[in-house]
Design goal:
Outer membrane efflux proteins (OEP), 65% helix, two-stranded parallel ribbon, alpha+beta, 478 residues
């Protein structure tokens, strides 16, 4: 059975105000279901003529009177990937969640309201009821150092999450550059092999004519047939790899494959090689621009703040509890304090936080050493390949000069078409060798860019939100 009791006006108003404040802070649940079909449809509906994409390109300094673009180079493809790539969307969502954790961790502790209902077994004739009604508030108090340590820890983690946006963007750029380089290598290799097949077929025809005239042996003709078959086989393999490379580019751009097939690609930016860096300059660039280095520093700062937090928690937790009780017309006010000392002076938690800080310090030193060695190795490989490429291009120039000489002799009637075709084949082989070295040099340049996280020959970088005082190094700042 429920019984109703009269609550005095001031006490009732106070309880209603507290309940009202609590009600105002409530937030209803709002469902956010995923729709896989709509998400897939959104992906299939991506286009290259979106006005939002044009605005994005213009905001990053790419102005073109023609829209949609007629040709897509490395810069345009990189900006296209930055515009709407799911990896960047994930990184931004994670950073947003990390910043939300800051607000959640640093909000004031809630007040606790404890209703009090007392029943008196003995009562006098003046007492109208055996019941007394009231409530208590519990107000936790915390030291300023505790709140500051909590804020510092979550701030550092949020800023590290901001840097991971930059890291995701750099990984997207790397995949786009690598895939475009593969497509470029395949296109040029296919052209060179096509020329070689044509010249070998011409050579085969000439040798067959000589064999019929008894001027060459069957062994020479058979060798020419094997060489022609080998060139045909390599051409087919290269062409089949082209479809795979184009699919990899579509994946790097997060675009439908038919859309990527329709694009006119421009490889001009890939043909530029970067100058070599000095060791000191290279090492400094790696340590300043590497996003993982800066992120590890922030993670160490969060671990340092956690140690300060556990040290601050070794002091007792205090809560004051003002209360009110209405007892048969008598208003009773009370004030109590709760003191909760940390168990064992919080030494186990402090030791655990210090151990985690040492782990972060060890990981930072290991990463720093790895970055320095990686940058030095990438620079050495790039310099070595650049030198080999210079020598191969000199050999290529000699073969070109040789072909031109044979062509002049052929026009003068001093040599035959077999010698001319043989010279052209040697030149094509030298061109393929030089181009293979060029591709390897460009790959090494990409590895050096990844080691330093700097576009050595220029290129776009995404804008990220400033995370003062640290900022995503190597990225544009808003």
């Amino acid at each position: 059975m429920l019984r109703c009791f009269h609550i005095p006006g001031r006490a009732g108003v106070t309880i209603l105000l507290l309940a009202g404040c609590a009600g105002c802070a409530l937030q209803g649940y709002r469902a956010a279901p995923l729709d896989p079909a709509a998400s897939a449809q959104r992906f299939d509906a991506r286009t290259l003529d979106s006005p939002y994409l044009r605005e994005y390109l213009q905001a990053h300094g790419h102005t073109s009177p023609v829209w949609p673009l007629a040709r897509w180079g490395l810069t345009e493809l990189t900006l296209l990937a930055f515009h709407d790539h799911p990896d960047l969307e994930v990184a931004r969502a994670q950073a947003k969640a990390a910043h939300a954790d800051v607000a959640a961790a640093t909000q004031r502790p809630p007040l606790a309201i404890t209703p009090r209902v007392e029943h008196h077994s003995l009562r006098t004739a003046e007492q109208s009821s055996p019941w007394s009604l009231g409530f208590e508030l519990q107000i936790p108090l915390s030291a300023a150092s505790t709140g500051e340590a909590i804020r510092n820890r979550y701030d550092a983690l949020a800023r590290a999450a901001d840097l991971r946006i930059g890291a995701a963007a750099w990984n997207v750029r790397t995949r786009v550059r690598t895939s475009l380089l593969d497509v470029y290598a395949n296109a040029v290799e296919s052209d060179l092999l096509q020329n070689e097949v044509r010249e070998r077929e011409a050579m085969l025809t000439l040798l067959q004519q000589r064999l019929d005239a008894g001027a060459v042996s069957f062994v020479e003709l058979n060798s020419a047939r094997l060489a022609a078959a080998d060139a045909h086989s390599r051409l087919q393999v290269t062409r089949s790899a082209g479809a795979r490379d184009l699919a990899a580019l579509a994946e790097a751009l997060s675009l439908p494959l038919p859309l990527v097939r329709s694009m006119q690609l421009d490889y001009a930016e890939l043909q530029r090689t970067a100058p070599a860096l000095q060791d000191v300059e290279m090492q400094r660039a790696a340590l300043i621009n590497r996003l993982d280095i800066r992120g590890k520093l922030l993670e160490y700062a969060a671990a340092e703040a956690e140690v300060r937090l556990e040290v601050a928690r070794q002091y007792p937790t205090i809560a004051i509890s003002p209360g009110f009780l209405w007892d048969q017309g008598d208003s009773i006010w009370s004030l109590a304090a709760t003191l909760v000392p940390a168990l064992a002076g919080n030494r186990p938690a402090i030791a655990a936080a210090q151990a985690r800080r040492e782990v972060e310090a060890s990981q930072f030193r290991a990463l720093q050493d790895k970055v320095i060695v990686q940058a030095q190795g990438a620079e050495a490989a790039y310099e070595s390949l650049a030198q080999a490429l210079a020598q191969a291009e000199q050999v290529n120039a000699l073969h070109l000069n040789r072909v031109q000489q044979v062509e002049r002799r052929f026009e003068a009637g001093d040599t035959d078409r077999v010698e001319l075709t043989a010279a052209r084949l040697k030149m094509l082989i030298a061109q393929r060798a030089a181009f293979a070295l060029r591709i390897e040099t460009l790959r090494a340049q990409g590895a050096l860019e990844d080691a330093l996280q700097i576009p050595l020959t220029g290129g776009p970088l995404p804008q990220v939100v400033r995370t003062a005082p640290e900022t995503a190094a190597g990225l544009s700042q808003q």
